[in-house]
Each structure stands twice: as structure tokens, then as C-alpha cells.
């Protein structure tokens, strides 16, 4: 998955998040570069996290602040729905589309676990 900068006058940048499933095993990896415009701010950022008792793996692309907001919202959904990945993703999607603040977030999440992989984007 790549999320490309959409601002005029800014050269396109992209984050790479790769999710692979083989049998019941899932691996998620991401690049570690954080940029602001053309300036590389960090080379070893962690764009992949574990949620819900390490059962769900989440990778993000886009604005870091927006991604952390979505991480928090998704983690709350996982807790509310006892770790059910699909139900939590659907509920986050509903909230993302109806909430005025969330609607403008510039981030994507790749979520994986329980034999499922999903791309969540507004």
C-alpha cells in the first residue's frame, strides 16, 4: 500500500506497508522513514504495531498524528468487540465516515489477524 502526498508543489512521497499471509501465519512490515516535505526526519520509525493482546498487527501510512488517532479509535473498537477484527473494522469505518473530525484524517491502516487482512482508509 502506498499513500502519496497530494499537496501541490510537493514531490510525491510514499510509505510502504507489506502484509503477507501463508497458511495461518501473517507478517506485516513497513519502511521506517518519516518525511516532512523533502526533509527526512527519521530513518527508523516503527509504522507497525501490535494491538489487542498482540493478536492483531496494524501498519499505517500517511500523517503520523492522524494514524495515531486511528490506532486509538481502532484499539477501542477491538476492546469493545472482544478482539473481533472484522466487526471492529466495520465499526471504525462507520465512525470514520460519519464523524466530521475523523472524515478529514489523512492516513490508512493495514490490519491483520485471525486469518484476515484488511485495508482501512477513509
From TrEMBL:
Location, primary (coarse class): cytoplasm
GO BP annotation list: proteolysis involved in protein catabolic process
Record bears the keyword Protease: yes
GO molecular function per UniProt: metal ion binding; threonine-type endopeptidase activity
Pfam families tied to this protein: Proteasome
Xref: Gene3D superfamilies: Glutamine Phosphoribosylpyrophosphate, subunit 1, domain 1
PROSITE patterns (UniProt xref): PROTEASOME_BETA_2
InterPro entries: ATP-dep_Prtase_HsIV_su, Ntn_hydrolases_N, Proteasome_sua/b, Proteasome_suB-type
This protein's name: ATP-dependent protease peptidase subunit
Organism expressing this protein natively: mine drainage metagenome
Lineage: unclassified sequences, metagenomes, ecological metagenomes
Amino acid at each position: 500500500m502506498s499513500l502519496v502526498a497530494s499537496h501541490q508543489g510537493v514531490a510525491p512521497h510514499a510509505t510502504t506497508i507489506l502484509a503477507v499471509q501463508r497458511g495461518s501465519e501473517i507478517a506485516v512490515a513497513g519502511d521506517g522513514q518519516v518525511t516532512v516535505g523533502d526533509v527526512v526526519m527519521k530513518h527508523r520509525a516503527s509504522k507497525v504495531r501490535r494491538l489487542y493482546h498482540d493478536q492483531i498487527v496494524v501498519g499505517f501510512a500517511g500523517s503520523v498524528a492522524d494514524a495515531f488517532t486511528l490506532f486509538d479509535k481502532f484499539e477501542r473498537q477491538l476492546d469493545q468487540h472482544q478482539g473481533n477484527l472484522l466487526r471492529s473494522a466495520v465499526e471504525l469505518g462507520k465512525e470514520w465516515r460519519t464523524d466530521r473530525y475523523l472524515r478529514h484524517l489523512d492516513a490508512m491502516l493495514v490490519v491483520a489477524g485471525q486469518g484476515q487482512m484488511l485495508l482501512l482508509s477513509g
